Amino acid sequence: MKPPVTLPILTALFAACSPSGDLPPLSVQRDSAGIIIVESFAPAWGDSAGWRVGAEPLLDLAESGTGDAHYFNLVREVRRLPDGGIVVANRGSAEIRKFSADGEFVGSAGGSGEGPGEFTNLQQIELAGDSLLGLDWDGRMAIFGRDLGLVHTMWPDPEVSEVRYLSDGIMVAEILVPEHGTLGLARWPSVLVLFDLEGVAVDTIGWTPGFEEYATDILSMAPLFRKSSVLDSHGDRIFVGSSDHMQIEELNPSGDTVRILRIPDYPLALTAEQVRAERDARLDIPLPPGVSSLPPYYVEAVEDLPSPETRPAYAGMLVDATGAIWLQPFRGFSERGGSEPWLVLGPEGDWLGGVDIPEDFWVTDIGVDEILGIWTDELDVQHPQVRHLARR
Fold this sequence. Notes:
It is a single chain. The protein is mainly β and 392 residues long. It is 5% helix and 45% strand. It contains two helices and 28 strands. The protein has helices spanning 272-283, 296-304, and strands at residues 12-13, 27-32, 35-40, 51-60, 75-80, 86-90, 95-99, 105-110, 122-128, 131-136, 141-144, 150-154, 160-165, 170-176, 184-196, 201-215, 220-221, 229-234, 237-242, 247-251, 257-262, 316-319, 325-328, 340-345, 351-357, 361-366, 370-376, 382-391. The strands form six sheets. It has a seven-stranded mixed sheet, with no helix packed on it. A five-stranded antiparallel sheet has the order 13-14-15-16-17, with no helix packed on it. It has a four-stranded antiparallel sheet with strand order 4-28-27-26, with no helix packed on it. Strand 6 and strand 7 form a beta hairpin.
C-alpha cells in the first residue's frame, strides 16, 4: 500500500446522487494522480434501511441433521462454496466441515494435531479457486481439494494473520510485524505479501498500520477502543483499511492504490463518559470460582490505559459477491447488545446506508441474496446459519 495520498484539487468528475438540484451532492468522485477518490457526505438511502436481513434462518446447520457433525463449538467461519455447498471452520474440533446446500453433512477435513492437514487452532478458511485453504494460528496452511482430500501443506510465515485469494493461483497474506518488548501503547504493523498456492513468496506489495496493543511488565491487553486494520479481496482486487478513519483503499495485485473510498466527516469523537464506561466495563468481568477480586496488577493496568479521543471507524470488513463493501461497527465492552447497523459502500464506492444485522448473529460471508454466519442462542449454543438478504 502506498503512503497516504495528498489530494490536490484536480478536475472533478462528479458522480453525484441528489434528490434535488438545489441540494449538495451525496457523493463526489474525482481523479487524483490516477487514483479515483470517492467521497460520500450522506447515505443514498437516507434514514431508511435499503436492504434487510431475514429475522429467521433459511438454513440452520445445527438443526438440519443430528449427530456430532451438527454440534458446533468455537466456529470461526461459514462460507458458501461455488457448487452450492457450505463449509464451516469449527475451531473446537479443529475441523473444516462440509455440508450440502440443504444442510446434509458431507464430510470433514483437518482434525486436531500437528501432522499434515491438521490444526492446533484453526483460524480461517478461504476459497482458493477449486481448492479450500485452512489457516492455523501459527501461519501453517493446508490446501484441500473439492473432495476434502489433502493436497499439500505449507508454512509461508509464522506471523500470517489472514489470507485472501486473488486469482491465477495467487493469494495475499497479511503478516504481522510484532514489536515485542515495547511497553505502553504500541501499534503492530503488518506487511502484505503475495504467495502462490505452494507457499512461495511472489512479492511484497505494501503494508498496513496493523493493530494496537498495550503492554506492561506483566501482561498485554487490547487498549480501550482498539484501532486495527482490515483486509479482504474481490476478484483480483485487494481492499484494505485502517479503522482510524472511515476510509477504505482498493489496491491492484501490484499494490498500487486505484481507489480511495471515504466518508470525510463521519462522527468518531468519544466523550469522557464513554471512555470511563469502557474502562469500568473492563473491570466488571466474571471471576473464576474461588476468586473474590481482580488481581491488583490487572486493575492498575486497566486504570492506566490511555484515554482515546476517537473510536475506531469499524471493527471488520467484508466485500460481498457484488463488490459492495460492508463495514462492521466497532463496539466496546460497554456497548454490546442489540442489532448491529453495518455500513455499506456500493460497488461504485458511494455510501448507500446501513443494514441491521440481527442480535447475536456474527456475519462471515455475504452473497447476492444471502448472508452466512453464526447465531448464538440463549444457551450459548452456536448455530451456523444462512439468512435471506433482500436488496431493494
